[in-house]
Amino acid sequence: MSSEASILHADLDAFYASVEQRDDPRLRGRPVIVGGGVVLAASYEAKACGVRTAMGGRMARALCPQAIVVPPRMGAYSAASKAVFDVFRDTTPLVEGLSIDEAFLDVGGLRKVSGSPADIAAGLRVAVRERVGLAITVGVARTKFLAKVASGVAKPDGLLVVEPGRELEFLHELPVERLWGVGTVTSAKLRARRIVTVGQVARLGEAYLVSVLGQHAGRHLHALAHNHDPRPVVVGRRRRSMGAQRALGRGPHTGADLQAALAGLVDRVGRRMRKASRAGRTVTLRLRFDDYTRATRSHTLTRPTSATAVLLEAARELLAAASPLIAERGITLIGVAVGNLDSQGEQLMLPLDGPDEGGLDSALDAVRERFGSAAVTRGTLLGRGEGFTVPLLPD
After folding, report:
1. Which of 20, 45, 96, 102 is catalytic?
2. Quick one: three-class SS letters along the chain?
3. Which of the residues 31, 85, 158, 367 could staple to 46 if both were Cys, CB 3.0 to 4.6 A apart?
4. Tell me: the pLDDT tens digits for 296-319?
5. Does the structure show a pLDDT above 50 at 253?
6. Which domains, from first to last, does the chain contain?
7. Annotated catalytic, 102?
8. Residue 129, Cβ neighbours under 10 Å: how many?
9. 361 is in an annotated binding site
């Protein structure tokens, strides 16, 4: 561990909603909800009323009837993300993107050039505000884990530096939910045993945590409660998967609705894979149900591909296998990801393999690149809103 707190966790505040407020002055200072059927994002004014991401739109409007509901504009969010990541890379070459709106930055060794890590973090916040027009919160610490915790505590629009030597004093006063990996289920298990702070977790033996939470989770939380996190900031890590998802809202949803949503998602993912010259073998279907539970189903192909037809066939088989769960629980979100990605060379197809799907995909990609993504679409998607999320990391 470095002797200096030099790892920054930079996290944009209420990202989607903030972009909407930036671009439309009428929305500033007012509660904003992005997405109608399911809340994709909420401004802090809406969060103050109890609105949360992934909440059903009807419930969100009941909690905050004065909220302004706007449709998602994924192109605007992607452009804003790219502009913010440009600021990150102008600050330091050591940038590790976590998602479209957050990243770790290592500023160790820049003191003589750019000042202390605290000064660099303050300058980063000013630069994002001036160049992109958005508020960003930054946490600074010696470990990635603690930097992320610090940014969470400092939100919104804040800056918090955890000084070396005071890490455990800061960390142990926080609720257990601040630990990475402590979600609703783990939190309930710990609180049922009157374990409510990180300090209490730290005072427990690893063996006890393993007995309560399982081997992986028990060891993980024991390490984090003592601020043990040796991971460096990693630059240039290639994506292990590419995916997209669509919020559907509460049903009912017909089989045709789900098939149309699935086809649109696979089109989107396949196009991104081909643009990045990647091919994948594992197709994963992700579902979220009316009761907020989730399920995933996956299938591994015999060879890597980015062909839309092949990926769609695999995804349809997974959806068919999951249909009993969907009928029982209802569905509010569907997602598709392709993993085990490899660099893609030219894929040659034997004459007996069937039509040249690769040539068709390339032709459609060229049309969409020139005239826009809506220039060519499937007949099943006509008249249906998309509402896709953007990629997890900026392209």
Report:
1. 102
2. CCCCCCEEEEEECCHHHHHHHHHCHHHCCCCEEECCCECCEECHHHHCCCCCCCCEHHHHHHHCCCCEEECCCHHHHHHHHHHHHHHHHHHCCCEEEEECCEEEEECCCCHHHHCCHHHHHHHHHHHHHHHHCCCEEEEEECCHHHHHHHHHHHCCCCEEECCCCCHHHHHCCCEHHHCCCCCHHHHHHHHHCCCCEHHHHHHCCHHHHHHHHCHHHHHHHHHHHCCCCCCCCCCCCCCCEEEEEEECCCCCCCHHHHHHHHHHHHHHHHHHHHHCCEEEEEEEEEEECCCCCEEEEEEEEEEEECCHHHHHHHHHHHHHHHHHHHHHHCCCEEEEEEECCEECCCCCCCHHHCCCHHHHHHHHHHHHHHHCCCCCCCHHHCCCCCCECCCCCCC
3. 31
4. 999 988 888 999 999 999 999 999
5. yes
6. 1-163 (3.30.70.270), 172-225 (1.10.150.20), 241-381 (3.30.1490.100)
7. yes
8. 14
9. no
pTM: 0.68
d(CA 277, CA 270): 10
Per-residue pLDDT band for 74 (boundaries 50, 70, 90) equals confident
The one-letter amino acid at 167: E
267 annotated among ligand-binding-site residues: no
Residue 327 is encoded by which pair of tokens?
């009928």
**CA distance linking residue 392 with residue 379, whole number of Å:** 28
Q: What is the CA radius of gyration of the chain?
A: 23
Contact 179, 217 (CB under 8 A): no
pLDDT of amino acid 372: 54
